[in-house]
Amino acid sequence: MNMGGLHLLFLSRNFLQIEQEPKSTTQGQPPAYWPATGELHVKNLCASYSPDGPEILHDLSFYIKSGERIGVVGRTGSGKSSLAFSLLRCIYTTGEVTYGGIPISSLKLESLRSNITIIPQVPELISGTLRQNLDPFEEADDLILNDALRAAGLDSLQEDMAVDKDKLVLDTVVFSNGSNLSVGQRQMVALVRALVRRNYKTDNIIQRSLHQELKDDVTLITIAHRLHTIMDYDKIMVLDAGNMVEFGAPSELLIQNDGVFRAMVNESDDKEALYALTRDGV
Predict the structure, then answer these.
(1) Cβ contacts of residue 196 below 8 Å, gap of 6+?
(2) Residue 147 has pLDDT above 50, yes or no
(3) How far is CA 42 from CA 23, 66, 95, 134, 244, in A?
(4) Helices then strands (H, E): number in the chain?
(5) Are 77 and 241 in contact (CB under 8 A)?
(6) CA distance 105 to 110
(7) Could you tell me the residue ranges of all domains in the chain?
(8) Is residue 68's pLDDT more than 70?
């Protein structure tokens, strides 16, 4: 028992000594109209998880037009999650990132992060009602929440459920981490949270909702774990060991004989279906 107590005390001291993010200030407040567009400029972006740690992203430079849909792919350890962390300023970076015409380094963190919505593959859910998970700060009324549920494909996800008590409604009790919900239902909750913020059963439902609900001024960057979700996107970014090795339209990447993206598609069991999903049907 004593060893357990000492162990906990040791952990507590370490957590107290970790570096803290900057406190909120009045500095770095963007104009009220920002972001007017979803335009993203990235120049010479490098990143690491500590000031003296190894570099995990190497000199990334790219431009994304407002309203474009970008798929980010790469094998495990390629830097996909690190790129997302960099755009949210969760890790140490150098280089320039300009979002909506303003360098993100000049913005206070809450302003930046409140204007970037993340839809995780396995979202974190709290113990409470579905309503509390969708709108934890009670900013939306039931009409908005129910409309967002329908837009996210709730009806399609629940159409095969024979028992009404198993269907999701705003008063449905959600266990910690959503343990009483299916994976598809948990993903839908994450999507609805994004729709409710106006930042606009399966991956197919989520992708269809994203196509229909997000407008031309919203830029969508999807870190893809399944290639079929991004084959009809405007561009694909391929990362490898922290480097951007390819960036272009899917149809362009698929005709590169030695291309990394082409190799990933050709290795898939759904190769023919993936080629058919591209806009040009390569």
Answers:
(1) 134, 135, 140, 144, 145, 148
(2) yes
(3) 26, 13, 8, 32, 12
(4) 11, 10
(5) yes
(6) 12
(7) 40-116+222-277, 128-198
(8) yes
Tokens of 15: 């957590």
What are 42's two structure tokens?
């990235």
User: Which amino acid appears at position 255 of this protein?
Assistant: I
Determine the average pLDDT of the residues in 230-246: 94
Residue 3: band (very low, low, confident or very high) from pLDDT cuts 50, 70, 90:
very low
List the end-to-end C-alpha distance of the chain, in Å, as a whole number: 64
Exposed / middle / buried, residue 56 (Cβ in 10 Å: 0-12, 13-18, 19+): buried
> Is CATH 3.40.50.300 correct for 40-116+222-277?
yes
As a whole number of angstroms, the distance between CA 37 and CA 66 comes to 6
Confidence (pLDDT) at 238: 96
Any residues with CB less than 8 A from the CB of 166 and at least 6 apart, and which? none
Contact 21, 109 (CB under 8 A): yes
The partner residues of 220 in beta bridges, in order of sequence, read: 69
Per the DSSP assignment, residues forming a β-bridge with 222 are 71
pLDDT tens digits, one per residue of 153-169: 777 767 766 666 678 88
Rg (C-alpha) for the chain, rounded Å, is 21
pLDDT at position 203, please? 47
Determine the Cα–Cα distance for residues 252 and 74; give it in Å rounded to an integer: 17
Contact indicator for 201, 36 with CB cutoff of 8 Å: no
What is the pTM (predicted TM-score) of this model? 0.65
Could you give the angle at the alpha carbon of 70 between the alpha carbons of 107 and 64, nearest 5°?
A: 50
Q: In the block, which residue shows the tokens 């080629």? A: 275
